[in-house]
Amino acid sequence: DTETGTAGDESNALRTPIVAVLGHVDHGKTTLLDKIRGSTVTEGEAGAITQHIGATAVPLETISEMAGSLVNPDDFDLPGLLYIDTPGHHSFSTLRSRGGALADIAVLVIDVNDGFQPQTLEAVDILKRTQTPFIVAANKVDTVPGWNPNEGEPIQQSIEQQSDRVEGDLNDRLYKIIGQLSDEGFSADMYWRVQNFQKNIGVVPVSAMTAEGVPDLLTVLMGLSQRYMKEEMAIDVQGPGAGTVLEVKDTQGFGTTVDAVLYDGTIRADDEIIVGGLNAPITTEVRALLQPRPLAEIRTEKQFEKVDEVSAAAGVKIAAPDLDDAMAGAPIRVVRNRNKDEVVAEVEKELAEIEVRTEEQGVIVKADTLGSLEAIASTLDESEIPIVRAEVGDVAPRDIRVAETAAEDKHKAILAFSVDILDDAEKLAKQEGVRIFEHDVIYRLIEEYEEHVEAIEQSQQEQVLENITRPARFQILKDHTFRQSDPAVVGVEVRSGTVKRNTNAAKFEDGEFKRVGNLKSIQDEGEDVDELRAGERAAVSIDGPTVGRQIEEGDELWVHLPEKHAKILEQELTEDIPADEREALSMYLEKQRNRDPFWGK
Ligand code: GDP
User: Fold this and answer.
1) Whose CA is closest to atom 2 on ligand 1?
2) Atom of ligand 1 at shortest distance to CA of 31?
3) pLDDT of residue 43
4) What ipTM was assigned to the predicted interfaces of this complex?
């Protein structure tokens, strides 16, 4: 068995800073990480990269070889950088350490052609919230028209070899990004002009395709960590380990295991550990610590090799009994020589900090990790969408059971983020009218839910309109009496509004509306119709009056509006009815209010 752990010198008490890559989809996060891995692999034998579980360690020697004159290794005593392999702010917010982000530093990737996009903003918000220092990789500089590529060169060197027009073009794009950063409250500049990286954001123009600027990126990250994070990196390497669960998964031959990133101390193959679980912290004993085999030994069938111990910062797969309820994003602590109850309390306290505020009524949120749960909850809070229950885990039938009891239709909903929906839950949801929304981009998930709520509200309003008497004013036409009474059948023309059948007709006389009868049917050229719009003519039958007595040819009639309906129409639905109906309504209200100023208020 071999020992693995910090890249570089094992005796060094400064740990490797942890780096995360964030940015909008397709802006080049994965390509950039691949390039960092790829180019460092090809940089010869001296301190090649080490593949960890979920992360890649790039030692200082490799960085200085790549960066050439940009780096003097004597300036540094940090051992290198540990890159989290899964890019994106989802994994970023998943990866927490005590009270903050697990990543010590971040790279925000922005496509120079696209600038800020929705997920760029989301990433910036998360970086702000977690107060994580970051630099900007202004990616895809090679796509500026006319660009002359210089594989792997430092960016200023490459820019010098571009035409004035290309350089000008690039600068336009870079300054646009700098402006957008400023809109978000960050003062940013090209990295070579930044004096104080704590106050200003350095922008590094790069191409993940040609690796131009990648040496600069590694150098700036290294320099930034060395300058501002050295103290945080000083750890007791031999102390009991602390880490975060990245993922809970089955590993052949080991049952349920957790992939974790260790950010403090050491974990050994015989340690007792406490892991944050769905219901309570899990106390268990390590059975095996696993790391990927070095590339050279890939001929063996087994993907992983057992190691005796791992020191921060590092990624490691931990095999132990009872890990089924472990949660991604939850803390892991090594007990070793400490009071176990205190360690359990520490884990409980950390879990409690991630608690999400819930209400009596609201939607259900299911997410794959504690971090994502927290991120969704905070976004929902901003959108004023209440949560009734928030949990890590797949969507199960019991979630549907809770959702179906919601008082309002819009709360019969489950927002599922990067989790599975169990088959019987899906069936039950259909049966009970519970809607499940799935997306692995937070803002899209919430957008889809909001669209759904809007649709519900619209249809509810339509239903209200359906059941409400609509205002209308119509006139009995001259020489169009088809029948005198029982019922009276007369030709009418609608002046404004909508006349529907089965409504009461009224006549305005002596300062008040008098009901004259029920408008039973409407016939247009022999065909029964449900309604008549402004300007249309038809024959209507009215139960009650006799032509020549209660009503006359030439009379103006109204649809009789119940006071309650008039009030809803005026106060809630004015925007939803056509202008001519609005006109009929206001005339109607005016007549009523001449008599009683508070009518319909
Ligand atoms: P992610 O979604 O942010 O991880 O983006 P990817 O790394 O998958 O990149 C998205 C697309 O952009 C892919 O087709 C990449 O090949 C391309 N791409 C990424 N970086 C560069 C770059 O620097 N230059 C060019 N020309 N294309 C790039």
Assistant:
1) 26
2) 7
3) 45
4) 0.99
